[in-house]
C-alpha cells in the first residue's frame, strides 16, 4: 500500500496539490514547452500583422490610380499594426490619435485565446505557473513594437519609440492575463479578500456598462436608418472609393457607439467645432464618412426623451442586485460598486474612442470623459438604488420600545431563564402571602392595642335588644375590607347613636307589654 502511494504521489509535491485531470507543468519536456511558448508569443503577432497587410492590400487593389507593391504594403502594415494597439501615429508631422477600436478588440481576443490554449498545452496546475507565459507574450510584443518604430524612422508615417514598445506590451499582457484567468478563474486569494457584495456589484456594473453600450448602438442604428439618404450620398460612385469608406466606417464603428452612448446619457461628443448633446447643439463641419451621416444638422426638442434609455439601464442594474442580501444597506453598497465600475468604464472607453485628428477643422474628436463618468455613475446609482431598496427583501421591523435586537437564546440559556422565572414567581407568591399575613397581624395588633370606647356600650345595647352578635365582628370586617378601625371614626361614632335610639324605642315598648 505504501509503495502504491509513492507511485501515485510525485516526489517533492504533496498529494492533492494538483487538480484532478491535470498533471504538473514540470512533466512537459523542455523542448515542447519552449515551442508552446514561442507559438503563443509569435502567433498573435504574425496573425495580426497579416490581417493588417491583407486590409491594406484590398484597399490598394480596389482604389483607383493606385500602384500595388508587396514591399510597400508590408512596410505600411507596421504602422497599421501599431494603430491596432492604440499607439499614436504621426502622418507628415500631423498627429493621429483617434484610432479605430475594432482592430484593438480583435488583437485583444486573439492574444487572450492564444494564452488560454498555451496554458492547456503546458498543463499548468496553478496560476503562478502561467506567469512565464504572460511575460513571454508581453516581451515579444515589446520587441516587435520597438522594431517597427525603429524601421519607421524617417518615413512619412512613424511612431514614438517608447510608446511603440510600451503600449503593445501592456495591452498584450492584460489580454494574456484575461485568457489565463479564463482558464483558472479568479484567484482564491482575491476571492477571500474581496467582499462578496463587491463581486456582485462588479458583475452588475459590467452588465450596466454593456447595457449602456447597447443603448448607444440602438441610438446610432436608428439615427443612421433615419438618415439613409444622407448616408448613401456620402459613398463615392467608384467601387474602390466606396469600399474604402465602408471599411473605414466598419473599423470606427465601436468609436461611434461610444460617442452615441455619451450622447444618450447626456454629455454628448464633439468633432472639432461641432458639439452635440441632448440639451444643446453647436454646429460645425463633419468628415464625409458614411458612419457620421446620422449626425443631425440641428437640435430637436424631443431629444430629452432618449433619457429613458439610461434610466432603464439603471433600473435593470437595480433589479439584478435586488436579491443579493436581505439588508437594504448591503444592496445599496453593491449598487455603488456597480456605479463605480460603469463610471470607470466610461472613462476608459471615452479616452480610447477619441483623440487627435490632424490639425484640421475636425481636430480633436473627444468625449467629455469626466462629465460622462459622473453622469453615468448617477444614472446607475440613483434608479438602481431605488429599485434595489424597495424591490428586495426587508428584515422585520423592531418593536417601538426596543433598543436592540436580542439574539435567540440557545436551549441551555432558555432552560436557565425559565428556571429563574419560576423562582421569581415563587418568591413573588411567598412575598405576597407574607405581606397578607403581615397586614392581618398588624391589623390584629392595632385592634388589640387600641381600646374601643364603644365596646362596652355596644355589648349592653345588644344584650338589651336580645341580639346575639359575634364578638369579633369588627375584626371580621377589618379582615374583609383591609381597613384599620381608626380609618373609620365616623362610622363607629354613628353606630352608638342608632343603637341608643333603638334602645329608647324598646324601653318605651316594654311597659306596654308589662301592663298587658
Describe the protein in words.
- The chain is mostly helical and 516 residues long.
- It has three domains: 25-191, no CATH class; 194-395, no CATH class; 453-505, no CATH class.
- It is built from 18 helices and seven strands.
- A hairpin with a 2-residue loop joins strand 4 (269-271) and strand 5 (274-277).
- Helix 8 packs across helix 13 (328-353) and helix 16 runs parallel beside helix 18.
A few lines on this structure:
By secondary structure, this protein is mainly α. The chain has helices spanning 2-8, 30-62, 70-84, 102-122, 131-151, 161-184, 188-193, 196-226, 228-233, 239-251, 253-265, 308-320, 328-353, 369-391, 411-449, 455-465, 473-481, 489-515, and strands at 89-91, 94-96, 157-159, 269-271, 274-277, 280-282, 365-366. The chain has a 4-stranded antiparallel beta sheet. A 3-stranded antiparallel beta sheet has the order 2-1-3.
List keywords for this structure.
516 residues, mainly alpha, 3-stranded antiparallel β-sheet, disordered C terminus, 4-stranded antiparallel β-sheet, 18 helices, 7 strands, 3 domains, disordered N terminus
Amino acid at each position: 500500500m505504501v509503495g502504491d502511494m509513492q507511485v501515485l504521489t510525485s516526489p517533492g509535491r504533496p498529494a492533492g496539490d494538483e487538480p484532478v485531470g491535470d498533471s504538473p507543468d514540470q512533466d512537459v519536456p523542455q523542448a515542447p514547452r519552449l515551442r508552446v511558448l514561442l507559438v503563443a508569443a509569435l502567433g498573435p503577432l504574425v496573425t495580426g500583422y497579416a490581417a493588417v497587410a491583407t486590409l491594406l492590400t484590398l484597399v490598394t487593389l480596389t482604389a483607383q490610380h493606385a500602384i500595388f507593391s508587396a514591399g510597400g504594403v508590408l512596410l505600411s502594415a507596421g504602422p497599421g499594426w501599431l494603430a491596432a494597439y492604440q499607439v499614436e501615429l504621426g502622418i507628415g508631422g500631423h498627429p493621429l490619435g483617434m484610432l479605430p477600436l475594432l482592430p484593438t478588440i480583435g488583437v485583444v481576443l486573439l492574444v487572450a485565446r492564444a494564452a488560454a490554449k498555451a496554458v492547456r498545452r503546458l498543463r499548468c496546475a496553478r496560476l503562478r505557473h502561467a506567469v512565464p507565459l504572460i511575460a513571454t507574450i508581453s516581451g515579444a510584443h515589446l520587441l516587435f513594437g520597438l522594431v517597427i518604430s525603429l524601421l519607421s524612422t524617417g518615413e512619412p508615417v512613424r511612431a514614438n519609440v517608447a510608446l511603440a514598445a510600451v503600449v503593445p506590451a501592456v495591452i498584450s499582457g492584460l489580454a494574456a492575463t484575461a485568457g489565463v484567468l479564463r482558464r483558472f478563474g479568479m484567484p482564491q486569494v482575491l476571492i477571500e479578500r474581496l467582499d462578496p457584495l463587491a463581486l456582485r456589484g462588479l458583475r452588475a456594473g459590467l452588465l450596466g456598462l454593456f447595457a449602456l453600450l447597447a443603448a448607444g448602438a440602438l441610438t446610432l442604428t436608428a439615427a443612421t436608418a433615419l438618415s439613409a439618404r444622407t448616408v448613401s450620398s456620402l459613398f463615392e460612385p467608384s467601387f474602390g472609393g466606396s469600399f474604402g469608406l465602408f471599411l473605414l466606417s466598419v473599423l470606427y464603428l465601436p468609436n461611434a457607439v461610444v460617442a452615441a452612448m455619451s450622447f444618450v446619457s447626456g454629455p454628448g461628443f464633439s468633432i472639432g467645432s461641432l458639439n452635440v448633446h441632448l440639451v444643446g447643439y453647436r454646429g460645425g463641419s463633419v468628415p464625409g464618412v458614411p458612419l457620421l451621416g446620422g449626425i443631425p444638422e440641428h437640435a430637436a426638442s424631443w431629444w430629452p426623451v432618449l433619457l429613458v434609455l439610461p434610466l432603464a439601464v439603471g433600473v435593470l442594474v437595480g433589479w439584478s442586485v435586488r436579491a443579493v442580501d436581505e439588508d437594504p444597506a448591503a444592496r445599496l453598497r453593491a449598487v455603488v460598486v456597480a456605479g463605480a465600475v460603469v463610471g470607470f468604464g466610461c472613462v476608459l472607453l471615452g479616452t480610447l474612442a477619441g483623440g487627435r485628428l490632424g490639425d484640421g477643422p475636425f481636430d480633436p474628436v473627444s468625449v467629455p470623459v469626466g462629465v460622462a463618468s459622473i453622469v453615468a455613475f448617477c444614472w446607475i446609482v440613483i434608479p438602481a438604488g431605488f429599485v434595489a431598496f424597495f424591490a428586495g427583501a426587508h428584515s422585520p421591523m423592531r418593536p417601538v420600545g426596543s433598543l436592540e435586537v436580542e439574539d435567540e437564546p440557545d436551549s441551555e440559556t432558555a432552560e436557565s431563564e425559565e428556571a429563574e422565572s419560576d423562582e421569581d414567581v415563587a418568591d413573588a407568591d411567598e412575598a405576597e402571602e407574607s405581606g397578607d399575613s403581615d397586614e392581618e397581624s398588624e391589623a390584629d395588633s392595632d385592634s388589640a392595642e387600641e381600646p374601643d370606647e364603644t365596646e362596652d356600650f355596644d355589648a349592653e345595647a345588644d344584650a338589651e335588644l336580645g341580639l346575639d352578635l359575634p364578638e369579633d365582628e369588627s375584626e371580621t370586617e377589618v379582615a374583609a375590607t383591609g381597613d384599620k378601625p381608626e380609618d373609620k371614626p365616623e362610622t363607629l361614632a354613628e353606630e352608638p347613636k342608632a343603637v341608643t335610639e333603638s334602645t329608647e324605642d324598646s324601653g318605651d315598648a316594654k311597659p306596654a307589654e308589662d301592663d298587658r
